[in-house]
Amino acid sequence: MSLRNTRAVRWVEHQYTQSRFEPTRRVWPAGARLAVLVVLFVLVTGLAAGMRSVAGDNPVLSLLVGAVSVLIALTVYAAAVRFLEQRPATELDTAAAGSGLRVGVAVGLGLFAVTLALIALFGGYGTKGGVAVGGALTVLGMMAGVAVVEELLFRGIVFRLVEELTGTWGAMVISGLLFGGLHLANSDATVWGALAIAVEAGLMLGACYAATRTLWMPIGLHFGWNFALSGIFGVTVSGNDDMPAGLLHGVLSGPEAITGGGFGPEASVFAILVCAVPTVVFLRTARRRGRVFTRHQPRSAGTSAAS
Q1: Which residues contact 134 (CB under 8 A, 6 or more apart)?
Q2: Burial 49-87 (b: 16+ CB within 10 A, else e)
Q3: d(CA 52, CA 140)
Q4: 55 close to 61: Cβ distance less than 8 angstroms
Q5: Angle between helices 204-212 and 269-288 (to 10 degrees)
Q6: Which pLDDT tens digits describe the chain residue by residue (307 residues)?
C-alpha cells in the first residue's frame, strides 16, 4: 500500500473514532448546521443516484456501487459532524454497528413479510415466472446505498437537528412528512402513498432512532424492509415502477386499500397497521430511557450513542 493510500485509510478511520477532543471552533446554531448538512447530503444523494444509474441492472456493478455509496455517505457524514459540531459522530459508533444492523434488518424483513402475508391472505399477492438471483443481488446493492443515504439525511441530519429546535415530537412529525414528501417524486407516486410512507416509515424510523440514538438500527430496518419488498418478493417500492426484477416476480391484484395499487404495498392499510406496532414499542422504549426531549432541553454527551 502506498503512503498516499495509507494516509487516506487513516483519515477515514479517524472520522469514526469516538475519542473526545477539544473544540477548535465555535459550533454553529442548529438551524445553520441543518441547512449546511442538508445541502451537502442533497449532493451526496445526487452522486449516489448517478452511480446507480450507471450500474443499471448489472448485479456486480450494483453491489460495487452500493458499497462505494455507503462508504462515501458514512464518511462524509462523520467528517461533517466532526467539523461542524466539534464532536465525534457517536450515532455512528462502529461498536454498535453489528448488532444494530442485524436487529434492524431482521425487523425490517419480518415486518414486510407480515404485511405481505396479510395482503396474500386477502388474495392480493401472487407470483409469476421463475426465480432471478441476479435481480436480487442488483436490488441488494441498490437498497444498501438507498438505506444508508436516506437514513443519514432524514434521521441523522433532519430528525436530530430539528429535535434541537422543536423537541422529539416535532422532529418526528417534520422528518416523517419530509420523508413521505420525497416519495412524491417517484413515477407512480400518489398523495395517499406519500402520507402512508410518512406514517409507517417516517414515524417508525424516527422512533427507532429516538429509542436507540444510533443510526445503525434505522439503516438496517430501512434496508430490510426495502430489500424484502423488491429484492425478495418482487413488488413495487414506493411507486417506483422501473426497479430491477427481484428474486420473485410479484403480482398484486385487488382493492387498492389492500394492495396499495400502483404505489405498491407501502400504500396498503396493512403496512400502516403493521408498522404502528414497532413505532409504539420504540417510543415507549425512548420514554423509558429518557430519550424524549423538549425544545432546548439540555442533553448529555452520551445521548447520541446507543446504551
Answers
A1: 59
A2: eebbeebeebbebbbebbebbbebbbbbbbbbbbebbee
A3: 12
A4: yes
A5: 20
A6: 555 567 766 766 677 778 787 777 888 899 999 999 999 999 999 999 999 989 888 999 999 999 999 999 999 999 999 999 999 999 999 999 999 999 999 999 999 999 999 999 999 999 988 788 888 999 999 999 999 999 999 999 999 999 999 999 999 999 999 999 998 888 788 999 999 999 999 999 999 999 999 999 999 999 999 999 999 999 988 878 777 778 898 899 999 999 999 899 999 999 999 999 999 999 999 999 999 998 766 554 345 444 3
For 103-142, give the DSSP string.
HHHHHHHHHHHHHHHHHHHTT-EEE-S---HHHHHHHHHH
Q: Annotate 207-230 with DSSP letters as a single string.
A: HHHHHH--SHHHHHHHHHHHIIII
Angstrom distance (rounded) from CA 137 to CA 123: 28
Residue with cell 448488532: 99
Q: Alpha-carbon Rg of the chain, whole angstroms?
A: 19
What letter would DSSP give residue 201? Answer: I
SS3 of 125, please? strand
Q: Do residues 80 and 173 touch, judged by C-beta distance below 8 A?
A: no
Could you tell me the three cell numbers for 133? 438471483
Please report how many Cα atoms fall inside a 13 Å half-sphere around the Cα of residue 255, on the Cβ side. Answer: 7
What's the grid cell of residue 121? 391472505
Please give the model's pTM, rounded to 2 decimal places.
0.92
The dihedral built from the CA positions of residue 174, 176, 178 and 181, taken in this order, carries a sign that is negative
Task: Give the Cα separation of 219 and 201 in Å (integer).
Answer: 12
What type of residue is 297? Q
- Write out 40-108 in H/E/C secondary structure: HHHHHHHHHHHHHHHHCCCHHHHHHHHHHHHHHHHHHHHHHHHHHHCCCCHHHCHHHHHHHHHHHHHHH
